[in-house]
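Table S2 (text version). Query chain:
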Amino acid sequence: MPSFIVLSHPLRPDAPTYPGNPPSLALEARHSIERGDAANTTTLHLFSHSGTHVDTPWHFNPAGRRAAEIPIERYVFHAPALLSIPKGEDEFIRAADLEPHAGTIQGCDLLCVATGWGRLRSTEPERYASAGPLLHPDGARYLIEAFPELRAIATDAISIGSPRHPDESRDTHRILMGYGRAEERYVLIYEDVRLDPAVAKARRVFAWPLMAEEADGTPCTIVAEL
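Corresponding structure-token output:
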């Protein structure tokens, strides 16, 4: 029997968010058995980039696909790979950091990059959200040009960008989202992921978005099958 591990952080009202974004989750009780209603119901208020989530092409590419427009099989990964590339505050992941791992990246469809920054999520949430490592545009360009089978990248940081580096963050997202390319070639971006070391043994990863029409991205439930 296969075993499974959850790579998504639970959505919580107090979870860290990218600076300037609204809270990850707000709950509004609508019906309550305790108050005499027949059932308990809740209204969920979510931002498209709440908690563990996926960036789909339309996030940075006006010609790109939205979350619900992408074929569902694109969210299932049969050749995941885990890289450990330790990075600290404001440090870039460059092409030079990725090149020594070309043999691991070759043939993988989901590249999980563990920077170690995720350890701060619960202990220093403000620093985790505002000062993390990020993927440099030359790293994004290297991945999308050198590895045609790559369909997604995941990071244990709040984002593959950073509010301290807006230009590089925009360019990295545009490169991965297919901005300005005639052919439809894009790499999905999963951010704020709990990259358990066991991912290295995963047979498959299921990274399902909410099927919300018109959304540029959505919170995800990500599960690795070991």
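Notes on Table S2: The chain has a mean pLDDT of 95. Residues 166-177 form the longest helix (12 residues).
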